[in-house]
Write a structure and sequence with these properties.
eight-stranded mixed sheet; globular; alpha+beta; 21% strand
């Protein structure tokens, strides 16, 4: 007879096995970058600077003389380091995003982010795929598929993401099936994001590592425009086993354009009643005009490890998930 004590013992042993896998994965990641002479850095978790992305909700922390934010990504500070003359860099860091809780989401998670000077988007994609294969153990076992955002989107939804208006996009049955209305999606980018997550991603072959590239520029606030298509950007995402694993791009360097894009996101946040982080002039002062030509990518390390463990539930990896901590 299977007793409660035996069940608890089995659960603990599974968590210890997951912890050992995770420790090996972290060691492999560091060896991967050491071999490539990429420097490991550490940047603040709590900062005046914050993501302005409308779709990311922030944890704010009152301090003695100001409000600061738990970082949703180490990206802002890592770009400041690059602008100060640092070489290729990587970081394994905690990141925090409010409201992202579920089977594959935890508001506190581990992010791997790195930047390569002079890398083209194709070089960044190649290196990111190699790292994903290393951590998950799928090298030589899972094929890699490359598809443009436009092709993946139109195949799954029947719409061209670059020419379809918001009012056309919301006619897709996925909206009505969830009781959603046009007013729930004030901009075309909102409708694109919804269909991407609810229709396109589930249609991807989970037995492949899939790289989707050439995202619409309206969905790429810090990426360079694609010279081959002014409506697209030099951005990609990697998917595997039904999960988004990483997001990368060839970095925007035009500070005037950064200002414009960040202000536009803040205006959306204000209209929706969300907290509006101030533009960090220290960031602009640091980065202007010294940010070198580079590409960067952020990987959800917890999800990579889940894939290596052949499970899709964060609770199989995290001893203290958000609900249980």
């Amino acid at each position: 007879m299977w007793t409660h004590a035996q069940a608890n013992t089995s659960s603990v042993q599974n968590k210890i096995a997951a912890a050992r896998f995770r420790a090996r994965a972290l060691s492999d990641v560091r060896a991967f970058f050491l071999k490539r002479n990429v420097l490991e850095v550490e940047t603040p978790l709590l900062s005046r600077d914050a993501s302005h992305d409308f779709h990311i909700d922030l944890f704010s922390v009152p301090t003695e003389n100001s409000v600061r934010f738990l970082q949703t990504s180490p990206e802002p500070h890592m770009k400041r380091l690059l602008a100060r003359g640092y070489p290729d860099i990587f970081q394994i860091s905690k990141a925090f995003r409010m409201g992202e809780s579920g089977k594959k989401h935890n508001p506190e998670f581990t992010m791997l982010e790195w930047y390569r000077l002079g890398f083209t988007l194709s070089e960044m994609i190649e290196e990111a795929v190699e790292l994903c294969q290393l951590v998950t153990g799928v090298a030589g076992r899972l094929p890699t598929e490359f598809v443009s955002y436009g092709d993946a989107f139109s195949k799954a939804t029947g719409f061209d993401p670059f020419s379809s208006h918001r009012d056309q996009l919301v006619e897709h049955p996925a909206f009505a099936g969830r009781g959603l209305k046009t007013g729930d999606f004030p901009e075309g980018s909102d409708a694109l994001n919804f269909l991407m997550s609810e229709v396109v991603e589930p249609a991807l072959n989970p037995s492949f590592l899939t790289v989707i590239h050439s995202f619409p520029l309206m969905l790429s606030s810090q990426a360079l425009p694609d010279p081959a298509n002014p409506l697209a950007s030099l951005r990609f995402e990697i998917f595997g086993d039904g999960m988004e694993l990483g997001n990368g791009y060839q970095e925007l360097r035009d500070i005037t354009e950064y200002h414009r894009r960040f202000e536009a996101e803040n205006q959306r946040r204000e209209s929706a009643g969300k907290p509006v982080p101030p533009l960090d002039e220290g960031w602009f002062r640091d980065v202007t005009p010294e940010l070198p030509a580079c590409s960067g990518v952020a990987i959800g390390l917890d999800r990579l490890i889940l894939m290596g463990l052949k499970t899709d539930r964060l609770e199989d990896l995290l001893e203290f998930s958000w609900e249980k901590s």
